[in-house]
Amino acid sequence: TLVALLRHGARSGSLSQGRMDVVDHDVDIMVGVRSEQAWAAQRMQIEAGLRARGWSHCIVRSSVDALEGTEAYYLGRTDLLLCFRQDPPLVMDITSYVASDAFGGIAYVQRFCPAGPGSASCYVPADVGAWKATAGRLRQADIYPLGRCKAGARLSVPCPRRPLRTLQAFWNDMNGTSIAVPDLEKRRIRTGVLSDLRETWQSEALSAEDVQILRQRSAQLDAAGFMSMTPYF
Description:
Layout: H1 2-8, E1 12-14, E2 20-22, E3 27-33, H2 36-52, E4 57-61, H3 71-75, E5 80-85, E6 90-99, E7 106-108, E8 137-139, H4 140-143, E9 147-150, E10 156-159, H5 163-170, H6 176-180, H7 184-191, H8 208-223
């Protein structure tokens, strides 16, 4: 979703010859909280608000993919919230992270405390969780101060200060070029499918006209005061 907003100011955008770049069909959101306990309260508020707006239900999950019986299985927190809407069909995938002055300027999604919360045994695991591509953590300076991204005709949302660095926490194959212009091969590898049948350029190269359209769209976002792909061309 962040890639789509930086590239198009919406979840999708047109290219040349009537082609569409549909970056993603679901909505991915990051929510920052000051503590693990704060997330427990925040996610209930989010679900209540979505239900009031017609969403059907939400489920909690952990980004820790570990076998039952392992330390990671028992110590991982439920940092994810997946919410579902039936009409129109839509999935919202919310990842929570903790950013507190107490943690030396880092943010994390998982922190393991074998001897209990607040003990000296607590540590950020490097090889599990949603941010394992960056050893489980990001600098808070990569996220804050937040910028603004256009999210459709009448909506804007907060966006991380350094979008590429944030994306690299989730996927280690991200680079500036691959987010500024559609990279269908990486998208296919990551998701197993193409987002939209109108992505007919899957066996073609992007044209110079396509790239020019994307550059112009970024310039328009810049002029309106929003974040864009301009730094990554």
